[in-house]
Amino acid sequence: MAFPYKKITEEDIAYIRSVTAPERVYTGSAISEDYYHDEMPEYGIYPPDLLVEALNKEEVSAIMAYAYKENIPVVCRGAGTGLAGGATCKYGGIMLSTLKMNKIFPVDQKNVTITAEPGALLADIQAKVSEVGLFYPPDPGEIFSTIGGNVVTNAGGMKAVRYGLTRDFVRCIEAVLPDGSIETFSSNVVKNTTGYDIKDLIIGSEGTLAVVTQVTLKLLPMPVLSSTLVIPFHSLEECADMVPRLLALQAIPTAIEFLEQELIEIVDRQLDRRLPVKIGEAVILVQYDAATRQELDDAIEAASADALEFGAIDCFVADTPATQAQVWGVRKGILEAMKADSVSTEECDIVIPRSNISRYVREAKKICKDLGLRVEPNGHCGDGNIHTQILRDPGMTDEEWKINTEKASRRLYALAKELKGQMSGEHGIGNGRIEYLEEFVGPRMIRLYKAIKLAFDDKLILNPGKIIEFNEDRKKG
Ligand SMILES: Cc1cc2nc3c(=O)[nH]c(=O)nc-3n(C[C@H](O)[C@H](O)[C@H](O)COP(=O)(O)OP(=O)(O)OC[C@H]3O[C@@H](n4cnc5c(N)ncnc54)[C@H](O)[C@@H]3O)c2cc1C
Questions:
Q1: Does residue 367 sit in helix, strand or coil?
Q2: pLDDT digits (tens, 9 = 90+) for 329-363
Q3: Which of 140, 107, 62, 311 is closest to 217 using CA atoms?
Q4: How many angstroms is it from 208 CA to the middle of ligand 1?
Q5: d(C-alpha 471, C-alpha 421), whole Å
Q6: Per the omega criterion (within 30 degrees of 0), is the bond before 377 cis?
Q7: Cβ(324)–Cβ(317) below 8 Å
Q8: Pocket probe mutation, ligand 1, options 43, 57, 60, 76, max atoms within 8 Å of Cβ
């Protein structure tokens, strides 16, 4: 078994340098403190003992084979934009950065796919496929994340309502297993029922099962036209009630997001970005993509009429690229603005069946308010993924913040369970939500997770202490 892990020695450092390059291996103060945490430092600050920037799968394989033999933990790191405390060295050891493994191969026009190394940025992949009129739909709010990170967190984002998640676009994965062996899971085929679907286990595994070294992604034709409706209502609850109505219309929305006026003001105050309308207590943003003007007009007209009949205060159509960019710029600024507007944040990434969003929103707000916490439920209401961000105000002591956010999280997860939802829709468990997982999924499921982990990583060297914790002393996130 893994514990205790070997502490890295000068000999280990020399070996990692010999299989990579001295100028890509860092130790001690040469490692930037950015690598001590991801976008949620609240979920743990853990300095790596060594940071190595790999250039190819052979280097990754050599590092993993050595770490396996020597019992040294390894954590893979993309752009570090994760929101679960996933890409952090909870047990020290090696941080393996894939940022320099960023090749994007030419679009395969016959299979309508693209292949890329894990460090390729989502923004670069989206740009490359658009050059040939194609479209990679997954659209998490951070386009400067890596495709490797997107795959192993099964990133969702705004356009999941119409197009689905990262998982729905992964054709095959090449990965290095914890013992250093290189394997390919599935191939560039549309269907596959050949044995267990290991590719689908690696997707969403948060770097705990394998190091992804290459992915092949399915593409779609680029939508020709799009428009966004900005619909103000008297409350967030009314916006939530509007979601099932929008989904029942003939046209499938690309994205449905919501936020309250208080949050709109935070984005305005912190980032100087504002929506084209400033009425109502909350707004719902609805984007439609279409192949023809008629199809787009019909979708917008039907949604506007239905919203107004349901009690919307107004319906504003953002149909130029500039107004659409303005609207989505506000939405995409939410996280940054909330961080700037508070001492720290706790974020629940709960996902609820869409029939239950309205009840979730009402009860979640009450849970947080009863505990004296500022809460901003917002985000992907169209797929039921309600980011329930709790914001810490300056007056609150560390103790109050810790106790109350813990109570709020437990109650929110219990509510999610009661409403047949899940703990995390897209950000994952990482280190930040680990202490709540067993209560949510139950001990039988944890035994199954542990068996899967051990089947890939019998020495527990890959991203240990994330999703599940084998070390009883470190069980708390
Ligand atoms: C402003 C903002 C908005 C966001 N919006 C969304 C959103 O709408 N939807 C959404 O899903 N997420 C969102 N995120 C979260 C984040 O961008 C995603 O989780 C993203 O997929 C992380 O990619 P990364 O390259 O930064 O990965 P990292 O943070 O570096 O790592 C994330 C996890 O993946 C593992 N990992 C990374 N690369 C590899 C690899 N090659 N092989 C194996 N494991 C690996 C790490 O060990 C870690 O567990 C947002 C983040 C920010 C800051």
A1: helix
A2: 999 999 999 999 999 999 899 999 999 998 999 99
A3: 107
A4: 14
A5: 28
A6: no
A7: no
A8: 76
Give Cβ neighbours of residue 333 (< 8 Å, ≥ 6 apart). Answer: 267, 270, 271, 273
Q: How confident is the model at residue 472, as a pLDDT?
A: 80
pTM beyond 0.90, yes or no: yes
DSSP 114-166: EEE-TTSBHHHHHHHHHTTTEE---B-S-TTSBHHHHHHHT--BTTHHHH--G
Q: What are phi and psi of 181, to 5 degrees?
A: -75, 145
**What was the pLDDT predicted at 476?**
60
CA angle centred on 354, ends 353 and 358, rounded to 5°: 110
Q: Counting atoms of ligand 1 from 1, which one is nearest the CA of 202?
A: 43
- Find, among 271, 253, 254, the residue nearest to 263 by Cα: 271
For residue 72 the two structure tokens come to: 């040294």
Query: What are the Cα distances from residue 349, in Å, to 31, 256, 360, 361, 423?
Result: 30, 16, 13, 13, 7
Q: Are strands 220-221 and 134-135 parallel, antiparallel or unpaired?
A: antiparallel
How far, in Å, is the centroid of ligand 1 from the Cα of 293? 36
The domains of the chain, with CATH numbers, are: 10-100 (3.30.43.10), 113-221 (3.30.465.10), 225-335 (3.30.70.2190), 342-431 (3.30.70.2740)
